[in-house]
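WARN no homologs supplied; continuing
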Amino acid sequence: MACRRSLRQVGSLLRRAAASSESVAASASDGAATVTKRSLWVSALRTPVIAGSKLATQSSHGLSRLGGVRSISAQLLKPSDRFEPRHNSLTPAEIDTMVKACGFASLDDMIAATVPKAIVRKDGMDLGVYHEGMTESQFLKMFREMAEQNKVAKSYIGMGYYNTHVPPVILRNLLENPGWYTQYTPYQAEISQGRLESLLNFQTMVCDLTGMQMANASLLDEATAAAEAMTMCSAVARGKKPRFLVSAKCHPQTIAVCRSRADGLGLTVEVGDEASFELGKDVCGVLLQYPATDGSIHDYKSLAQKASDAKVKVVVATDLLALTQLAPPGEWGADIVIGSAQRFGVPMGYGGPHA
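OK structure emitted
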């Protein structure tokens, strides 16, 4: 019974407040012309707020107990995700202080005195439909509509370029884990510590998959990494061995980059069947593809042993995802292992196979 009586009292209170707000709105519309007729309701008790009004609180039971009337600014109704108010930059007062310290009356005067007139633009640099600034939500909407115009086709290019699929559990708990990019000490840069830890985990994983004792995270594509490995082989031989042998089973882009890099280093790249390689005293290294560019898998253990006996370095370009099933190159004699981590989730880029 007590609960039911309390509910009736609350209902009566709300009805009185509604009736009082109607009388306030009516008197405001009949009286001062500066009072906005539209009212905004705020708080859990639905307190009426008249925009631009300076009316005194009414003596009615509803308004006297639930609150008075206050004004609000129309500026507050504008989008809050604009760039300017959230940009951590100089204030106008700070700009004036710095400009005056340099001996100028305004920022425009300083620019006019420092930028050559021949390169000063006077047309306002019109950017067309993108000239006016966008809010964050407007930009995301525009960018999403633009991205939807792309035609996503299935890729059959192969040769080291493959579509990827990242399981949601890895995506959410690893790649999207804020622990990788937030600081845990007040003075630490936001991403540095998380990046160091993630790189250490990545390098440890690469060591496990390749069977090598150490690994780096160079951010190079596979073809460029192959050229760097060729340079390393030449440096280990102190430049006394100018020949570098490349298997014809390597990806064509890898062969092309090695040839381009060799021109500037004074090296000779010879492409052919690895089974017929002649490992002479002038050979600094050999490059093998594992698996091959056509997807075939070959046993290079005997070739690696032969190269070791001839003091020739063995470079293996490999697929890290394939190494989850294949024997690690480090176990059958590889000296240097290179590859791309694109297979672990980097999608094909629009305008190129992948980054």
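The longest helix spans residues 2-30.
OK
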